[in-house]
Structures are given as structure tokens and as C-alpha cells.
Amino acid sequence: MPDFLPRPQAPSGEPVEQFRRASRGTARRNRHAVGHHAAWAALALGAVLAATGCTAGTVSPKDAVMPSTAGSSATGLTTSAPLETPTTTQTSPVYWLGHSNDAVYLYREFQPTPGTDDPIVAALRAMMTTKPKDPDYFSVWDKPSRIGASISAKNVITVDVSSDAFAQKVDTGIAQRSIAQLVYTATAAASMAGLIDPAATVQVSVLVDGHTGYQAFGHVPLTKPLTRDAGFVAPVWIVDPGNGATFKTLPLKVSGQAMSPSGTLGWALAPMVNGKASGAVLTGTVAIPQGPDKLGTFNFNVVPPLGSYELSVFIADPKAPNGRAGVDTKVVTLTGH
């Protein structure tokens, strides 16, 4: 580790380098042992600190600030944010920011996993260096020159990232959501890899250049461990199909997760004409089996004529006729061959 980057401290106060020597070979072998082996209590995932280069991108002006009608604090309809379940899939969960009506929420995609990084670093690196598949999503992070992660026996994930990742100028609301984006991505990656106990509270401590107390994006003090803030999660979220997907067979199968005051959602399918959605050709509703005001899954099938469509799923806004809240959209193409 270069001298200019102070050694990050694990939550217990031990240098992370000491954890790495002790556990580098065991973290992956024991990732499914949470809750099954007493040895897990002493296990920490070693920090992986690797040079990545540093290139500053340009954030769109509309992505750097919250909509003028929205506040900076979490005001989403979602009141719970369960962790992802362990899986053997070779993809990294990455959360992005996305505009919906006059709000900005967190949405998740899956990115290919590099074989050389540990799961948390791989997901965070993807979050800070790649682009989302859905053009409605965005991120304001810059590519860091250094990033590392460790896990304590108390379910505390420590992320150490270089200060160059925070170079963009954003307002308080976007800064808060960007830190939440990091927390969600780190906890999702750890949970999917089986590296944490999903039944216990999971916290994320963010160090910058090895120190606590950094003012992230000039607005958010990183002085204490953070947890998932459910208010930042999108109330409606299409998981499948992905944006830009092409299908040769019908029906078009739609799934996702959402929370609705009524326990139901609306959906619409509008043909794409010259790159824009025109009037809907099919509409309908779908129930969330978990009921009103509970985060749950939804599934439905659609059999439209062949063509390209914008699929929308939303919450009917009781305050406005034909109003839509929490809208998520995907563009799909049905070829039939």
C-alpha cells in the first residue's frame, strides 16, 4: 500500500492488512458458513486495495441536483429494505440512482463479476466505473484510484475509498442518495456472497483515504456506521425484463418488486415511435401478494402485437386523475422469430 494512503482500520481497531493475511484464503471458502460455524465469528474479509486509475466524468446538470419540487431527505413509500439472498450467480448487484416523477430513487441491476476482485470490491468498483444498462439510471461517482473492503465478526462492512471518487459537484439530496447507493451495493454484494448474517443488523463504515469523518460530496459527514435507509428505495421496480431486451416468443413475462398503499399496481405498454413512447395499446393492473403497504413481488404476462414497446409499471396516484407515482419503465422488443 502506498505511503500516501493511510492504512484503513477494521472496526476492532486492527489494521486491515492484518485481517487480509489471516483470512484472504478463507473468506471465499467460508462464504456460506454464516450461522453454521462458530469460526465465522472471528472471520473478516481482507481488504483488496488495487490501483484503478482515476478519470473524472461529467455529470449531467439534471442528475447533479434533486428536482425543484422534491426535498433532499428520504421520502419514498418504501418502509423496509430486506437484504438480497445468497446465490452462486457470477454477477455483482449494483444500485443506481434513477429519476421517477419528481423524485430520485435507488434501483438495482446486475453486472458481470470480474474474477480477481472480492464480491464487495467488485460491486463497488462496477458502481463507480461502469454505466447502468438502463438509460433512466445514473451515478455521480468518479473512478477511484483506491478501494478496499473488510468485514468484522459483528456484521460491520468497512469500505475504504480514495477521495478522488467524490469529485463531482452535487446537491445535498443527490449526495445523500449516492452514499445510500454505496451502502446498498456493499450490503447486497456481501449478502449475495454469503459473507454476512442476513438475520442481524448490517452496518457500513465508510473510510476515505483511511480516515473517518470525511464530508462526502461536500454534504454528508461520514462519522459513523450507516445502515440501509428504506426511504431511498424505489417504490416500483421492474426486475425483468431488462431495458433493451429482445424476445422471440410470447408472452412477455414481467416481474419486479414494489410497495403500494392499495396493494395493487398499474401497468401500460406503449409502442415506440421514432424513439419515443406513443399512446398505450395495452393497460392493466397487478396485485402485490404481500398486500397494502408491504414490499413484495409482482408478476404478470402480456401478449401484445410484435414490435418495440415502452413498458411502464406504476402506483395510481389518488391525488390526480390518471396520475402515476413511482413510475419505472423499460424498452423491450418482440420479434417473434
From TrEMBL:
<feature type="compositionally biased region" description="Basic residues">
    <location>
        <begin position="21"/>
        <end position="31"/>
    </location>
</feature>
<feature type="domain" description="GerMN">
    <location>
        <begin position="120"/>
        <end position="217"/>
    </location>
</feature>
<protein>
    <submittedName>
        <fullName>GerMN domain-containing protein</fullName>
    </submittedName>
</protein>
<dbReference type="Pfam" id="PF10646">
    <property type="entry name" value="Germane"/>
</dbReference>
<dbReference type="InterPro" id="IPR019606">
    <property type="entry name" value="GerMN"/>
</dbReference>
<feature type="region of interest" description="Disordered">
    <location>
        <begin position="59"/>
        <end position="92"/>
    </location>
</feature>
<feature type="region of interest" description="Disordered">
    <location>
        <begin position="1"/>
        <end position="31"/>
    </location>
</feature>
<feature type="compositionally biased region" description="Low complexity">
    <location>
        <begin position="67"/>
        <end position="92"/>
    </location>
</feature>
